[in-house]
Specification:
The chain is an all-alpha fold. Helices cover 77% and strands 0% of the residues.
């Protein structure tokens, strides 16, 4: 697969991981009463004038780009190793950005203001997003490999 096709694949799978895995995690957490977050929010947020769900899908696609660039090196071998790699990716990548980078940009407190509940929700959703991303990449890549034979 060419580099452009791999990057497109990573973007699409990252967006799908947000729409399928991340949103289902949010739904589950809201049903349990842990997080008061709406499922598939359609309200347009700044800085873009598109729905929050579309923004999250684009950001997930960008994470998918990064994931696919490093996936060949470490995350490719087996379901369990892929899940561990995805969990680490989600915790190191998206969670750290939500805990450190976004608060620095928007002038809000780091690590959710030290709220253990917020830290745990972000960590859980990021880890589940990473595992879902890893498994979707494995699954779709396997189908593509099998179909090309």
């Amino acid at each position: 697969m060419s580099t452009a096709a791999r990057l497109f694949f990573g973007f699409v799978v990252g967006a799908l991981a947000v729409l399928l895995v991340h949103q289902l995690t949010i739904w589950g957490l809201s049903r349990v009463g842990v997080a008061a977050v709406s499922l598939f929010p359609m309200r347009a947020n700044l800085p873009w004038a598109i729905s929050a769900t579309a923004q999250q899908a684009v950001i997930g696609g960008l994470w998918g780009l990064l994931y696919i660039l490093i996936w060949d090196r470490w995350g490719r071998y087996g379901v369990l190793r892929s899940a561990l790699f995805g969990a680490g990716f989600g915790l190191i990548g998206p969670a750290m950005v939500l805990w450190i980078v976004w608060p620095l940009i928007w002038g809000t407190p780091l690590f959710g203001g030290g709220s253990m509940g917020r830290i745990a929700v972000v960590a859980l959703t990021a880890v589940v997003f990473g595992i879902g991303l890893a498994w979707l990449v494995q699954l779709i890549n396997g189908f593509m490999r099998h179909a090309s034979r």
